[in-house]
Amino acid sequence: MFNIDLTSRVPIYEQLYKKTVELVMKGILKEQTQMPSVRSLAKELGVNPNTVAKAYQQLEHDGIIYSVAGRGSFISKINHQELKEYAFEDFDKAVIDALKASVTVDELCDRIKNIGEGFRND
Amino acid sequence: MFNIDLTSRVPIYEQLYKKTVELVMKGILKEQTQMPSVRSLAKELGVNPNTVAKAYQQLEHDGIIYSVAGRGSFISKINHQELKEYAFEDFDKAVIDALKASVTVDELCDRIKNIGEGFRND
DNA sequence: GAAAGTGTATTATCCGTAGTAGTACACCCA
DNA sequence: TGGGTGTACTACTACGGATAATACACTTTC
Description:
- Two copies of one chain form a homodimer.
- By secondary structure, chain A is mainly α.
- Chain A contains five helices and two strands, in the order H-H-H-E-E-H-H.
- The first copy, chain A, has helices at 12-25, 38-45, 49-61, 80-100, 105-117, and strands spanning 65-68, 72-75.
- Chain A has a two-stranded antiparallel sheet with strand order 1-2.
- In chain A, strand 1 (65-68) and strand 2 (72-75) form a beta hairpin.
- The longest helix of chain A has 21 residues, at 80-100.
- Chain A is elongated, with a radius of gyration of 17 Å.
- The interface between A and B is medium-sized, with 34 and 34 residues.
- The structure holds a DNA duplex.
């Protein structure tokens, strides 16, 4: 569920953050759902508890989860539109970079449609 | 021309690489155009010559420029379609991430069109 | 009340990468 | 010959990611 890539250049805590957002967007993690504990998830992934804690703290900072000492971490009441905006951040940068490199809007749209056709979201 | 952002999280040599590709795509840097020397560009940007050299070496490795000891570095014969593919690499990743987060193809295209309207490439 | 599990905090350490600094070499050209 | 070129090398610093080992306060459960 929270599978990560230890060889990736993307930091583990950032992968965990994004993965959580994904699961929320897909409706797999619903409001009030309890997240795995810091220690158990760390053990499952084979990473340090501090790394998981860092991801959780950023998720809480952004209002995606809330944590209670002694009880655990839980999915917050989600504003899906807000999360979508978050998902757009990296996308916007990539679009601007492509436009800078003289790629046209139409080319990008075509590209997306091609990618979308072969994409299965599960 | 080769303005870079020293505060960015993106490594300087990578910024230089991308900037060069941009300038080639725009037709500003044409085949056989001489690049600034490693030392002069380093001085101009206020960075270490090694950092510029690293960017040049990657550009040469990817066939975008060619370097001749004692003479300088020059823009190669460019396959623009190939360069465009390079520009698409980061873009594709961003698209896939967005799709994973349950954003639709149509939403992405609309997003691009909005960005494209307010975009001036100079 | 005790124990186990929770998030949180702290400190120290290791490691890889980016970047700097300095130097040296072989090359080309005027 | 001298100055400019790319290239190579070593040493060093700085920073962030990640680990390791504790410790603490809290909640839940028995």
